[in-house]
Amino acid sequence: MRNISDGAQTVLPGMPRRLLRASPKSLADFSDCPRRYRYANIDRPTPARGPRYAHHTVGTALHQVLASWWDLPVEKRTPGAARQLLYSAWTPTGFRDAEQSDRWRARAAGWLTDYVTGLDPTEEPRARERTVSTMTERMTLSGRVDRIDERGDELVVVDYKTGRVPSTDDEARGSQALALYVLAVRRTLRRPCNRVELHHLPTGTVASFEHTEKSLANHVRRAEDVAVDIGAATQAMDAGQDPDEAFPAVPGRQCSWCDFRPSCPTGQAAAPARETWSFLPEDDEA
Ligand code: SF4
């Protein structure tokens, strides 16, 4: 009997291929640095992670509030209620001191006020913070979508952005995560879905893209290529290859802020650590 090796695993004729369990984040981790993928997805117990960054605190609080705001009764979905939710959700984690944390909380409250003022509280999204999943030839993929809007017969994938640079339509088009979410939303909610939107809260701008079957197929093809590489690395490690060789480190600037820097000697040697508040724009930029 002939075995077929597809680079990901050895497949016996007639036997179903074992699917990789993946998420857009895990695929991106492997593409950036296979060592980081191994730390996050294979090594158990999970290696120690570094401290939390202040800009993540800001992003997490805003995401949390924008999910909870829709849980309020319609008449209570006001900008003031959003600010109250933010003040409850806020933590000072990662900031230099209380003064910096307070200043950023006020700034985030301002973004939230402007954004929520533009929402129609009666237009209930189809879902918030919803886990969706799909299957490709080599993977089962799942991930959590910030918001799924219902527009006519179609569903729209909405992703909140809180970074310093406004999102662009090119970014919406090129995002593998958003493309995979479109497929997962279609499969999970059994409705048409093509459009993806990036809502940049600091500027209130929206970048978007309407996917076609061709653009989605291109994203899936690239994701499948990564899945093959993950499968090959895992198979090599299982067959006895040194895990550090099977999942090589790709050191670079990103090692300064990589979650797994405390567990990664290669990353520590490659770049200096950054302060946990150093990704916040300066006051005059913000
Ligand atoms: S610190 Fe750098 S080399 Fe180490 S896992 Fe993170 S990104 Fe990879």
Report on the structure:
The protein starts with a strand and ends in a 16-residue tail after the last helix. The N terminus is likely disordered. The radius of gyration is 21 Å and the shape is globular. Helix 3 crosses helix 4, helix 3 packs parallel to helix 5 and helix 7 crosses helix 8. It is 42% helix and 18% strand. Strand 1 and strand 2 form a beta hairpin. It has a domain of 64 residues. The longest helix has 26 residues. With 286 residues, it is an alpha/beta fold. It contains ten helices and eight strands. Strands 3, 4, 5, 6, 7 and 8 form a six-stranded mixed β-sheet that branches.
Task: Please provide a brief summary of the model.
The protein contains ten helices and eight strands. The protein has 286 residues and is α/β, with parallel strands linked by helices. The chain has a domain of 64 residues.
Q: Strand count, sense and closure of the main sheet?
A: 6 strands, mixed
- SS class: alpha/beta
Alpha-carbon distance between the two ends: 65 Å
Assembly category: single chain
Q: Which compounds are bound in this model?
A: iron/sulfur cluster
**Helix segment count?**
10
Could you give the order of the helices and strands? EEEHHHHHEEEHHEEHHH
